[in-house]
Amino acid sequence: MKKMIWILVAAVAMMSSAAFANESCAGVAAGEKAYNEKDYERAIDEWRTCVDNGMEDPDLYYNLGNAYFRNGKLGFAVYYYKSALRLRPNDPDIQHNLGFATAMTKDKVEEDEEENPLLSGLFKIHHALSLKVQLFILLGLFWCFVIFAIARRLTGNEKTRNILVGSSFILVFAFCITGASAGYKIFIAETEAIGVVTAADADVTSAPDHKSQTLNTLSEGTSFEVLSEQGQFLEIKLGDRIKGFVHKKDVGVIK
Question: pLDDT tens across 122-159, in order?
């Protein structure tokens, strides 16, 4: 339990440091000025400077997606919209712009009919709160549990003690559910990688080299699952029919 406390405290401290770093990037304001003046190329350069300096912010990624879209670079637009959505899964503006940009891509992959309504509902609940919010909730639940435990030891009233015990069980249950959801998000963030074609097109080859057979060609803005990294190539999968290797220079990877 002590280890969990320190993990949560460290996570909150890291988020605070990141927020401070975000506010200190001068390129944010300069990019907004350029964007408002419809100088999208300069806006991209300013905002990319912040990204290159380690800034990870959904608003920054969303703005970059808008700038790239208006600059006619669909692949990078999709890439940054998806990057923004990964940090803020339920943002309607990001979802709308991503859907609009994705609809313009040439490659269409038919997906299976949607799953069980119960599972769909659980995933909606799972994505209702960001990982950052869940970490704060976990910290709050933990300290509530500590306060209830201390109060239970100090009180001499049996009825009050029983209420505190029942409330403690509810807090533990809420902590476990929220912790499972947050843990799953961390697992996905650490293990799942999505790629987007940022070049005009990308050849899918049978092996990780330029001499191998070209199996398919993916158009700009197409998204796919990244399975592994092999030198200058990525092993990828798109739907049930497309699997092979693409060169890193043709794509962007969202981790």
Answer: 666 776 777 778 889 999 999 999 999 999 888 888 88
- Look at residues 232, 199, 189 and name the one whose alpha carbon lies nearest to residue 76: 199
Q: Provide the 10 A C-beta neighbour count for residue 96.
A: 11
The answer to whether 221 touches 76, Cβ cutoff 8 Å, is: no
Task: Give the pTM.
Answer: 0.68
> Could you tell me which residues come within 8 angstroms of residue 101 by beta carbon, excluding any fewer than 6 positions away?
65, 69, 74, 77, 78, 81, 221
Residue carrying the six token digits 């070049």: 199
Pairwise CA distance, residues 242 & 255, whole Å: 21
Dump pLDDT digits (tens) for 170-215. Answer: 999 999 999 988 887 777 666 678 999 999 999 999 999 888 999 9
For the chain, the straight-line distance linking the first and the last C-alpha, in angstroms and rounded, comes to 29
Rounded-to-5 percentages of helix, strand, coil across the chain: 60, 15, 25
